Structure prediction request, 82 residues.
Amino acid sequence: MARAKGAPTLEHIEAFILERGDITIGAIGTFDCVATAADEHQSLAMLVRRDGEALLELLVRLDEAIRMASEEGIFTDEVNSS
Prediction:
């Protein structure tokens, strides 16, 4: 499937899923919408959807959080740190 010109590639999400990682979007606890990325060993990112944030914007942030965890060892947890 072709992507629209200028659309984000979400390449890190795609690679993560291909490597058997798990992406989840849904309610967690008191948060209406959270995007998470985890593999069999650890959680790489847990991002809370911001007020007015489009779902695509949340996915772009998740893509970057996966990159940061994979390449820099920086893990993001907005669920337990807020």
Remarks:
- The beta strands are 22-28, 31-38, 43-48, 76-77.
- The longest strand covers residues 31-38.
